[in-house]
Amino acid sequence: MDGQKNQFLFKVSLLSISLMLTAAPAISALIPLMKESFTAQSLASVELIATVPNFGILIFVLISNLFIRQIGKKQTIMLGLILALVAGMMPVFTSSYLIVLISRFFFGAGIGLFNSLAVSLITEIYDGEEQASMMGLQSAMGSIGSTILTLLVGVLAKYGWHTSYLIYAAMLIPIVLFGLFVKLPSKKTTTTAVSVDTSGKETVNVATIGLMVFALFLYAFFMVLMLKMSTFLMETNLGQPENAASILSAVTIVGIVIGVVYGKIFKLLKKFVLPIGILGMGLGFFIIANASSLLLVVVGASIAGVCFSLAAPYLFILTGEVAPTNSVNLATSLLLVGINLGVFLSPTLVNGLGQLFSLSDAKGNLFICSIFLIGLGISTLVVTMLHKNKQIVQKEEENGYAK
């Protein structure tokens, strides 16, 4: 392992499995085209095709350790990749809504099998600065893969939605690279960069549960940008599905750029990065909902993408701060549960709100999300300021006692 871990081909092969981690929403721009085929299904049911993989991811992330214990890490990853390849390609060959929906669930299941290993293998194999560098690249790979696949969907959409699912043939890349060039030890690596205290029992507190629910709503509202962009452009005659694919690709590219400089931004904004990010998301959605040109849609989507990339990473930082002692892993797992549930429930939640407020079209849905996000951002800003003031008072009292 020590000999191969520094080889370029080994690193590329190890990182290649992260290319497909966020591949599920890439077909979101196809929703209007699929709706034309699945005339007996409601819009929310068709949108479920884009989000049901996250339900599969959620379940199989939780049970992936069972597979790892039975067949090993590499075999679990290979099984996940092959399952995702077969299930991902299935819609190319069928026009049955039920089969498409089931295949999408198993596509997510395949990703769920190797999702956590894409990160944990890096922490096991590398340490120090090299580990940090690899983790940064791992984070970027998901956005890069999503960007490329979303662009390909825009190109292939001209030939029908069935053809666009050919993008998941890209699963062959990590299957070949990881299968041929990554050799993992048969025994669990004992040298890690971080020493974990396992003496205490993992517990859950109110803050952890609250953060999970917070993440659920944040991701549910943001996912509307992916789900409704294509429908919005067609309803308002501002563009076509291929335009939506290009815009959504730009959003993911923005995520890559923000990820590279996130440390510097966080150093400047500190805890205010979360409320600023959420308020910015609300502003971006508001601009899109009221856009009269494709350019304004691009501006709004870019603002929403930038601000989401500011807010989302801080949720994981905040999780480490609020989690009980020895419970960071459990708290992180719960946060991932909230995120995946939010993505999965996004169509149901937002369409329900649309019917409640008589704003059922894509424009109305985006407007509702903008209002809720702005309200969520204001609430978060108030809590952040109150917490900061409390810390200042406590510090002044401590200094007074010290005197």
UniProtKB/TrEMBL annotation:
Keywords per UniProt: Cell membrane, Membrane, Transmembrane, Transmembrane helix, Transport
Domain (Major facilitator superfamily (MFS) profile) ranges: 1-387
Annotated transmembrane regions: 12-34, 46-67, 79-99, 105-126, 138-159, 165-182, 203-227, 247-265, 272-289, 295-316, 328-345, 365-386
Annotated protein name in UniProt: Predicted arabinose efflux permease, MFS family
GO (cellular component) term, any one: plasma membrane
GO molecular function, one term: transmembrane transporter activity
PANTHER family assigned: CHLORAMPHENICOL EFFLUX PUMP RV0191, PURINE EFFLUX PUMP PBUE
Top-level division of the source organism's lineage: Bacteria
Subcellular location: Cell membrane
Topology in the lipid bilayer: Multi-pass membrane protein
